[in-house]
Write a structure and sequence with these properties.
about 800 residues; alpha+beta; six-stranded mixed beta barrel
């Protein structure tokens, strides 16, 4: 019996679908409009959820990633920091809340690979022997490191990435045991990682950390980050408690290096994707608003169609059709239309995803891997059903609440009564209010971008070319001089106005050290002032366009046989020597002291959206060791890019195995520092434009419907001599009233939404009056434009025909 009823229900469903298809074929214009509007909403949902899923929500590509924890040190001032290798060994050996606790180097240092192929610079990382095991990743070929290789003087072994294996080792299956030359030293390949493994991001060669090595020595040598896997049954709180006890002991035993330091644990997923989650959720929220506008627009269209068919529906009800059957039929029509729109929207989403990838801000993780996978398609299906229900329920219910006798008499007219206008007015008001929210949010982001572009970076970016060069080898005694030889050759190139080098440039961050005045020694590590440290050559400030405010810059005479000197930034000078002249004073670091010979202007080291941070510059000739690579800055008398061939040739003449990479103008780096804000502004602007257009279409449809509904009345007005302008103004006024109602509703909603922008804005208040005013004016102008065409059409009504139509 149950099977019989199921078959009857299926047959009824198939009949309703076929009937809906036949009915809709008779109204191709209406069907096309609904399909197009549905495609916009569901396609947008598919695009943005693919980004949200791929970047933030998708689980990390590690074994049981929910048990992975990020562990970082905290200074006495509460700032996050890395740990020394000795700290790591203490944590690893004394905390039993972790099944495994691993470490990796903070910086992905570049290494030069030579051999039969062209020299190539590859990023590398030092990791503990249990690193890959902790992540739950096994090598594709060979093995990972063993504890015997985690000691100074251990075997020279490396694990390489899948890409390195394909590119440099010919994808040989018997690669284990192969020797490779890296920085003029020979290493044995013991393992190849899987194809999709990419952590730390971009690293292609992994070396074992070596207990007792120079990078692993000393409590103040904080070169490592920690990742732990919780033991079965262990909680994050238990691990935090145990690690805090160990941190307190280290702080007591080594007060100079670690006084007041602690440790903080967070889920690894949160550490990776927490910073980008607000941007993704903001964009997803904008997409949801557009979908609501789509639903309101569809509901308005479907309501108009139901009322145009009220004669047909009245006949069906009078002949005995149940209200449930009519409701089901109308809902299925809505579902058929929205499903067709979803199919088109998903097709369009593939192009949308490509556009999003093309706009990639550069700092959104995993964006390159997004696509239309099963998760995105299921969300599209859910959005389809939700859209069909939200837009179809009210019109379907309206179709069953007809006055049978009156509608049978009016069946020839196929027009809705005035009593149904209130529902459509409400829907249009909602669309306008939601559009205002998106317009305000977009306006705030655009104003923020404008303010960012007006920010003084502290240097002159025009005419600057930046190139990274790395000479192979680790002989620090000669490596620095080799860099200076390269720099001298570049300075001799015609067209080069000035050239210099540094280990790091502004907008790329950089290492920092705790510093203090010589006459005010710190009592604990918290008394040190953190400052960004850069190693620079002579002519650095002149080439970069950073002004020297007092004293002098770094000179060629600042070499290994002269007193160590430094140039400090203005913000560092103000914090350490308020109302004093710092030139000639002594700056003390954990590893030595430097004489301050100059004060330079502040530079926004970490991007245009960040404040100035204290910094100091040391002479590269006086540095304790040469940097892995040198970041060249070349000021051109003409177009910077035109110098690249000459620079490449000059480097090859001296260092044939030195790769050049990361070539760009300083103006590009400036633009990249605001890439995330530009990404958000563009996408939100696109959503706001679509939402406003949909709201305008909805208002246009409503005004056109009202003109048709009041055709007889307008004909009488014109026949009695009413001025054309008064008729036009009557229609326009109603559209403006709806826009004002949408503004009144939308402004409080926008005030709530903009509170969530917070850190996304720069030098702009979330309640900026100008932005709210401009957005409201844009909405009113849009409403005025959408109402004007129906109003003009109303003034062209033929009075005689309008009066005849009412007979």
């Amino acid at each position: 019996m149950n099977g019989y009823h199921a078959m009857r229900n299926i047959d009824a469903l198939i009949h309703d679908v076929n009937f809906s298809a036949r009915t809709l074929r008779r109204s191709p214009g209406f069907a096309a409009a609904v399909v197009l509007i549905s495609a916009i909403g569901i396609g947008g949902i598919a695009v943005m959820f693919s980004v949200l899923w791929g970047v933030v929500l998708r689980p990390l590509p590690f074994g049981y990633p929910d048990r992975l924890v990020w562990a970082e040190a905290t200074t006495a001032a509460g700032r996050p920091n890395s740990v020394s290798a000795l700290d790591y060994f203490d944590y690893r050996d004394q905390c039993n809340a972790f099944e495994s606790l691993a470490a990796r180097s903070v910086f992905q240092s570049g290494r030069v690979v030579t051999g039969t192929a062209e020299p190539e610079r590859v990023p590398s990382s030092k990791v503990s022997a249990n690193f890959f095991h902790t992540l739950g990743i096994a090598p594709f070929l060979g093995r990972s490191f063993s504890p015997a290789e985690e000691v100074e003087g251990g075997p020279g072994v490396v694990v390489v990435s899948h890409g390195f294996w394909e590119r440099r080792l010919s994808a040989r299956r018997d690669v284990v045991g192969t020797l490779v030359t890296i920085d003029d030293a020979v290493y044995q390949v013991i393992g190849v990682m899987p194809e999709r493994y990419d952590y730390p991001a971009g690293v292609e060669v992994w070396f074992p950390m070596q207990r007792g090595g120079w990078a692993e020595s000393g409590r103040g040598n904080n070169n490592f980050l920690m990742i732990g896997r919780l033991a079965q049954g262990a909680t994050l709180a238990r691990a935090q408690s145990q690690m805090a006890v160990i941190a307190a002991r280290i702080s007591r035993e080594f007060p100079k290096e670690k006084g007041g330091w602690g440790v903080r644990l967070t889920p690894l997923h949160e550490q990776f994707f927490g910073p980008v989650r607000p941007v993704m959720l903001m964009l997803m929220g904008a997409t949801a608003l557009v979908l609501l506008i789509v639903c309101a627009n569809l509901s308005s269209l479907l309501l108009a169609r139901v009322m145009s068919r009220r004669g047909e529906l009245a006949v069906r009800l009078s002949l005995g059709a149940s209200a449930a059957a009519v409701t089901r039929q109308l809902l299925i029509e809505s579902l058929v239309l929205v499903t067709a729109g979803a199919a088109v929207g998903v097709g369009l989403a593939s192009f949308g995803i490509r556009a999003v990838k093309a706009l990639e801000p550069g700092d959104l993780p995993r964006l390159a891997s997004i696509g239309l996978d099963a998760h995105v398609l299921w969300v599209a299906v859910a959005a389809t059903v939700l859209t069909a229900l939200l837009s179809g329920v009210a019109p379907a219910l309206q179709g069953t609440r007809l006055d049978l006798l009156s509608n049978l008499r009016e069946s020839a007219r196929a027009t809705a009564g005035r009593r149904h206008l209130s529902s459509r007015r409400l829907l249009v008001t909602v669309q306008l209010a939601l559009s205002l929210v998106l317009l305000v949010v977009t306006g705030l982001l655009l104003r923020s971008m404008t303010r960012l572009h007006q920010v003084d970076p502290g240097l002159k970016a025009e005419g600057l070319l930046t190139i990274d060069v790395q000479v192979p080898g680790r002989d620090t005694g000669t490596q620095s001089q080799r860099y200076f030889d390269v720099l001298d050759r570049i300075r001799a190139i015609p067209g080069v106005a000035s050239a210099a080098g540094a280990d790091q440039l502004p907008f790329f961050g950089g290492p920092w050290n705790g510093v203090h005045r010589a006459d005010r020694p710190p009592q604990t590590s918290s008394d040190f002032l953190p400052a960004t440290r850069r190693m620079v050559t002579d002519r650095f400030f002149e080439t970069m366009g950073i002004p020297i405010l007092a004293g002098r810059s770094i000179k060629p005479m600042d070499g290994g046989n002269s007193r160590p000197v430094t140039v400090v930034s203005r913000s560092l000078a103000q914090q350490l020597f308020p109302n004093e002249n710092p030139v000639g004073r002594i700056l003390v670091l954990p590893w030595g002291s430097l004489e301050i010979v100059g004060v330079a202007g502040d530079v926004r080291d970490f991007g245009l959206a960040t404040d100035f941070r204290p910094a100091f510059y040391v002479a590269l000739r006086q540095a304790r060791g040469a940097p892995d690579s040198l970041r060249l800055v070349i000021r051109s008398a003409g177009q910077p890019a035109a110098l690249l061939p000459s620079v490449r040739q000059a480097v090859r003449e001296l260092e044939k195995d030195a790769p050049l990479y990361r070539v760009a103008t300083m103006e590009k780096w400036l633009a990249d520092s605001t890439a995330r804000q530009r990404f958000s502004s563009f996408l939100l602007g696109a959503f706001a434009g679509v939402a406003t257009l949909l709201a305008a279409v909805g208002l246009f449809g409503l005004m056109s419907y009202m003109v048709a509904q009041r055709q007889h009345e307008i004909g009488i007005r014109l026949a009695l001599g009413a001025p054309i302008g008064s008729v036009r103004n009557l229609i326009v006024r109603q559209g403006v009233v709806l826009a004002l109602a949408g503004t009144v509703v939308g402004i409080p909603c926008a005030l709530v939404a903009t509170r969530m922008l917070g850190t996304q804005l720069y030098a702009v208040s979330p309640t900026d009056n100008l932005t709210f005013a401009v957005a409201s004016l844009v909405l009113l102008a849009t409403a005025l434009t959408a109402s004007l065409v129906p109003a003009l059409r109303a003034t062209r009504i033929n009075c005689v025909e309008a009066l005849k139509a009412e007979r």
